Amino acid sequence: MILTVTPNPSLDRTYEVPALERGEVLRATGERMDPGGKGVNLSRAVAAAGHDTRAVVPLGGAPGALVAELLAEQGIDVVPVPLSGHTRSNIAIAEPDGTLTKINAPGPDLTPRESEAILATVGEHAPAADWVACCGSLPRGLIPAWYADLVTRAHGHGSRVALDTSGPSLLAALRGRPDVVKPNAEELAEAVGRPLATVGDAVKAAEELRTAGAGTVLASLGADGQLLVSAEGVWYGTATVTAVRSNVGAGDASLAGFLAAGGEGPEALASAVAHGAAAVQLPGSQMPTPAHLDPAAVTVTADVPLDRALTE
């Protein structure tokens, strides 16, 4: 069972439009409403793949109630932590060429009592989990070290921990020694404080995160594939994608595929790449099912193209 923790969940509305034109009245050709947030998306992807998952989510107001309802409809065991504030609502506008414009609300301001309630709730459910996945940005009221506390507590319950966050929260959490961290190329560059021009640069940056405390680094490089850097070795994975429809939640789907396949080694990387490739070809933040996966389109190799330029 994979337990997810999403400190700043959302209610996400995605509209598909022929083109984004400022100042004009746009008529959507398609729309979706989904529960959002990295951990929420990960739970949705795990459930879509047929595995057990439980989602710890701080929720408040009518948007929060709708998030819980939508998650339950997808077969996810929801563990709500009541908030005095309202869960945020986000908007995404998707164009036919794959361009996505997102408007993300800041979210509620959590009180110290609500912060501790989330940590306590994770502690109650972590012993039953194979993985605890801590995902997304922190809402107002939570300091960057909050994730470090969460990682340490989860480890204390015997759980392996995957972390998908960025900036000061990622750097602070490394001292808790998370088993897996999953940055994208931009987040990886931010973490090491320099631009990454090649796949080799990304490998070096990932090794620096491992030195700082990460057990394994699963790095999403967008259209340039994915990297897995661990004590056992370095692998590089790519997939053939026919057309990009929306990249919302693609990284979350990748992490779900990785953890569901065991969370280590080239086989898990292949699963991550397959899930991510399937996700970008689906509308909005729809998560792929096994029927959407195309393992034959995935290539994983230990012969990493270090000189390959990163395009994103």
UniProtKB/TrEMBL annotation:
Residues 16-290 form the Carbohydrate kinase PfkB domain. GO terms for molecular function: 1-phosphofructokinase activity. It holds the Pfam family PfkB. It comes from the Bacteria. Keywords: ATP-binding, Kinase, Nucleotide-binding, Transferase. NCBIfam families: 1-PFK (TIGR03168), pfkB (TIGR03828). Belongs to the carbohydrate kinase PfkB family. This is 1-phosphofructokinase. It comes from Streptomyces coeruleoprunus.
